[in-house]
Amino acid sequence: MHKQTIHDVELRGKRVLVRVDFNVPLDMEDNTISDDSRIRAVLPTLRYLIHAGSKVVVCSHLGRPKGKVVEELRLAPVAKRLSELLELPVTNTEDCIGPEVEQAISRLKEGDVLLLENLRFHPEEEQNDSGFARALSGLADVYVNDAFGAAHRAHASTVGVALYLPAVAGFLMEKEIDFLSKALTDPAPPFAAITGGAKVSDKLALLENILEKVDFLLIGGGMCCTFLKAQNHEVGQSKVEEDKLDFALDLTGKAAEVGVKLMLPGDVVVAESFASGVPFKIVSVSDIPESSYVMDIGPQTIESFSAELRKCKTVIWNGPMGVFEFAEFRRGTEAIARQLAELEATTILGGGSTAEAVGELGLADKMSHVSTGGGAALEFLEGKTLPGVAVLQDK
Ligand code: ADP
Ligand code: MG
């Protein structure tokens, strides 16, 4: 990575403001965290700072409080979980700027950890307000961004603050950028991209950016319906993005021109309504009944996609193959995940739902990299510059 990291700066005795993404799912009933993987993901950075003798000031957003204090979105449960994982006390302040915070920080000793209150309780955070950014920067000597999941947002704590402090990347940020940029710039061939999810319109920029980089482009999920329709297949009640039919045709044509094998499902699982617990069946894409919905890729498609994946040395995957939230339509997503888990290849997953599906299957550890950033990973793979990365100091 061409950005400086915490390896490149003096840390001992320094107050280090670390922006993390602790936007964890909460179980509102008992005020606990239902999935702590985002907290676990930044432990290497926090442990490194602790051992380096920094005074560690951690900050994050949680949910969408829209610039007001929302009691349910306080970070106290996160501080508790972080403390358990670090096996250290974690002080938790009631705000993220102001005199109480300054006093708490002045009491920190080397290796102590403090967690600031939800940044988004202040509307100035999302406005990237310079006064708020300056107030945050006044709390520290060094700024570390380890919140890859928020790096596509130009907010005070991801962009503004970096103007006033030495700004470097944490280890999670470094790992995310290293994996994603290697896939885009120097992938071991053959290289496949698997795309799925609900809509083509969400993935236009991704498809355009990766088309000329990959050898195989496998398209599943709800978005394949627009591609199928563009090839004159009827897709029943499934959503077709009429205004994207030309895009689908163009992409298919371009793929042929540049020698990319673009593959659509040959068979799909269809259901009589978009629901769980309803009758479903496997049909060829040329026989999709008028009354039904495409819910998943079929077994022949799983086999033909897998056969190409087995040839690959690099695979990126964004978007589930079917409506995996319903158990009976999880098979395509599960089969592709199991195939990737078996490959001796670099396998990189981006996208919130994709990560969730693979996490539920217990296969996340079998992938080379599961991005912690849904929107951020997508924008990176689209070839965009992430503002939270751009502001970090170059090597
Ligand atoms: P990611 O978050 O990984 O980028 P997306 O947000 O693009 O993925 O898409 C995830 C959603 O796509 C899931 O909620 C899933 O139910 C939906 N989806 C997948 N296949 C279909 C389908 N055939 N029809 C409708 N929705 C689908
Ligand atoms: Mg999503």
- CATH fold annotation of the largest domain: Rossmann fold
**Which structural class fits the helix and strand makeup?**
alpha/beta
Could you tell me the strand content as a percent range? 15-25%
- CATH superfamily membership of the largest domain, which one? Phosphoglycerate kinase, N-terminal domain
What would you say the CATH architecture of the largest domain is? 3-Layer(aba) Sandwich
Could you say how many structural domains there are in total?
Answer: 2
Helix content: 25-40%
* CATH classification, class level of the largest domain: Alpha Beta
Number of helices: 15
Q: Strand tally, please?
A: 17
Bound molecules: adenosine-5'-diphosphate, magnesium ion
pLDDT averaged over residues: 97
